[in-house]
Amino acid sequence: MITDQENAIAQDDDVVRVPNGFTGSVIGLTLKISFVKTVIGKKENNQEMSTNLKYLSLSILVFQTTSLVLTMRYSRTLKEEGPRYLSSTAVVLAELLKILSCVLLVYKDSKCNLRTLNRVLHDEILNKPMETLKLAIPSGIYTLQNNLLYVALSNLDAATYQVTYQLKILTTALFSVSMLSKKLGIYQWLSLVILMTGVAFVQWPSDSQATAAKEHSAGSQFVGLMAVLIACFSSGFAGVYFEKILKETKQSVWIRNIQLGFFGSIFGLMGVYIYDGEQLSKNGFFQGYNKLTWIVVVLQALGGLVIAAVIKYADNILKGFATSLSIILSTLISYFWLQDFVPTSVFFFGAILVIAATFLYGYDPKPAGNPIKA
């Protein structure tokens, strides 16, 4: 006698009777597959987001580097009525703006809680005076460097400055070897030789550059070159010293930047009153300020934050690409817009060598894997 269940199975071929244990195994396997797909999907989304952040940070770095150099050069050579703004005051304002930006970032990391922010600042800065004082040395050097960049761009065109300033790779490498006992590979040593050769070609005098200097330059190219060279050495030493401090402590980079900005503003104010005190008493702190000056201040203040983001999300190869693109853009804009630079074949050859050295220094050859045996 056929039961109702057997009759149903006979009428519908899609209904299959299986053991209960097997059904449970299939459901469990299905759930595991679904979980794995979810995890893989999240990883792919995270990778895509990380890639987007990487290229976004690099785009911002190219924009910040190029626009800062060009606007700083333009603001220092622009002929206007009345006194020109004091670069020493611009450096102080940039430090204060950097402090404000880092405090806001610490506030964000503190889940937007004022009590937590106050406790973090008190514990990490006020309760650790010796740790804070360690930042006085690199802060003073960075302040000197920032003032020197204004001197350099008052006397050099943006393209020549951009290429020559890449000598900071050489000084950073030398200080890393001496202070951090860092070992450089053969590619890195080779890149440093190429870098020095490229900068030498860029600085090689030519008739067209001499003519352009007489017509457009606001000062002496020798003064600009010396300012860049000193800035390269100060940048290399301060950068390595700061890196050493970061490795020895667990404080966040934003806290460290607040400490740097605090000392930087103090040293900057000292420089204002020592070197520009007379002009300050005549025309005031904000003499010669306009919209362009404030743009320069904002770009200089955000420079360190952009570099921190690039270090976090990008690698040396992409950073080298950003530097190279910035050099190219500065060269083109200096020639077509500022019209204070006449490129020569020697300059282009030197610039290509510097760009190649930048890529080569960040190149990290991966060891070849063992061949798979059959």
TrEMBL record:
Molecular function per GO: pyrimidine nucleotide-sugar transmembrane transporter activity
Domain of life where this protein originates: Eukaryota
Main subcellular location of this protein, as a coarse class: Golgi
Gene Ontology CC: one annotated term: Golgi membrane
Signal peptide boundaries: none
Membrane-spanning parts: 52-73, 85-107, 184-202, 222-242, 254-274, 294-314, 321-338, 344-363
Keyword Glycoprotein found: no
Topological category with respect to the lipid bilayer: Multi-pass membrane protein
Entry keyword set: Golgi apparatus, Membrane, Sugar transport, Transmembrane, Transmembrane helix, Transport
Location in or out of the cell: Golgi apparatus membrane
InterPro entries: EmrE-like, Nuc_sug_transpt
Official protein name in the record: UDP-N-acetylglucosamine transporter
Organism: Callipepla squamata (Scaled quail)
